[in-house]
Design a protein that fits this description.
The structure is a single chain. By secondary structure, this protein is α+β, with helices and mostly antiparallel strands. The protein has a single domain, classed as Sandwich (Jelly Rolls), CATH 2.60.120.460. The protein is about 25% helix and about 40% strand. It is built from three helices and eight strands. It has helices spanning about 20-30, 55-70, 90-100, and strands at about 1-10, 15-20, 35-45, 50-55, 100-105, 110, 115-125, 130-139. The strands form two sheets. Strands 1-8-3-5-6 form a five-stranded antiparallel beta sheet, with helices on one face. The chain is elongated.
Length: about 140
């Protein structure tokens, strides 16, 4: 069995944003030389997410609007988490909605996606360096 572990460094210039990781993850799959296996992509921070969806800018905008409606940054007074001195309760909730990680099959040496699927990193408390784990295993 082959395996490869890599980390993608991310520093989102804004508090929130979505970054397409697909091409970078595809490079790691090629580097791994795995032909049949699995690729895990994991946000290693509790205020960030990794998910698979369509690479369409309108949809990404809609995700941002929808998440802000579900867990608004302001007003902050209703978040008990903020009583501890933190100010990012909304980011924790947004991450919970969008998910921590994805696992994608590798078939014939490539990520085995549906027609429009792409890997995205969702940042909900940015403006500092974070990491994404890419773990590939298989034959």
């Amino acid at each position: 069995m082959k395996s490869l572990t890599e980390y993608i460094e991310i520093e989102c210039p804004k508090k929130t944003g979505f970054i397409n990781l697909t091409r970078e993850v595809e490079k790691y799959v090629l580097k791994s030389k795995v032909q049949e296996g699995l690729c895990l992509v994991n946000a290693m921070h509790i205020t960030a997410s990794v998910f698979v969806n369509d690479a369409e800018s309108g949809l990404l905008h809609d995700f941002g609007v929808w998440l802000e409606q579900l867990a608004p940054y302001i007003p902050t007074g209703h978040y008990h988490h903020h009583q501890t001195g933190e100010d990012n309760a909304d980011a924790h909730l947004k991450r919970q909605i969008m998910g921590r990680e994805v696992v994608i099959a590798i078939t014939k040496g490539k990520l085995d996606f549906g027609p429009w699927e792409q890997i995205y990193y969702g940042e909900f408390d940015g403006q500092r360096r974070k990491r994404v784990l890419v773990k590939i295993i298989g034959e």
